[in-house]
Input
Amino acid sequence: KQRVILMDPSEDPDDILRANRSREKTFVFDMVFDHRATQEEVYVSTTKSLIEGVISGYNATIFAYGPTGTGKTYTMLGTDCEPGIYIRTLEDLFKALEATAKEMDYTVSMSYLEIYNEVIRDLLNPSSEFLELREDSRGSIQIAGITEVSTTNAQEIMQLLTKGNKQRTQEPTAANKTSSRSHAVLQVMVTQKSRRQAIGKETRIGKLFMVDLAGSERAAQTQNRGKRMKEGAHINRSLLALGNCINALSEKGGSRAHFVNFRDSKLTRLLKDSLGGNSRTVMIAHISPASTSFEESRMTLIYAYRAKNIKTQV
Output
């Protein structure tokens, strides 16, 4: 349930000379799922516990990370009969909010965007121009002109997300016919005000980010050339920036200075609040069981293992 053993397909078990240099590795995580795991199981053991936090004003972030074709979009969006984390989380969030409706007034607004080649596109209103990231006077990051939808109906949201997902930049590569070439970010903001007049000033704001990252595979794997190659370089740049932030955050108290460079890419700037600070973050790393993607699986597991060492100070 908690260990992944990665075996090198090119290794000969009888080769005594290389026995000590084996590339077989064991990784330990909070939770490991095999190919038999259902969407419900993955959701319950990764995300369900975060909902309570969002309602009490913490931020929460869920990442889907891994090479192309390993099922990131399936985990996050799912299908109509097997919905993914987006829908299950929002359904439970609305149920939990309804339970507090007597004491609290709440509003839920959500936006769905993609970061492609370091520009931000609104997936709910695809005809609009590229959007700008701005910082307000309190230092929180805003996206100017993004479409925000307020609703408390999970079915409505599923339709919006499916529609938005069709607007995502997808291109065929040698590794996957419908490879997502952009990072999709679903941002849900829960604002609550108490109904009692005496403490009418207090407002709780919890942000929930759900991020379906673009594939982290190497260019050799997708045989990309020209435009696809440039696109892959942008994807890898933002994933590298995310990796650097994760490294800096997980090495706090080490010899390195406490500087975390969130400004290296739009993705990390947008997720600044949710990587450090008052946030609970889950990374769901996806790997393929195929022996041809051994290198990709190894890099993904190392990346996820580093992310596991982040300690946030609330």
Remarks:
- The radius of gyration is 20 Å.
- Residues 226-250 form the longest helix (25 residues).
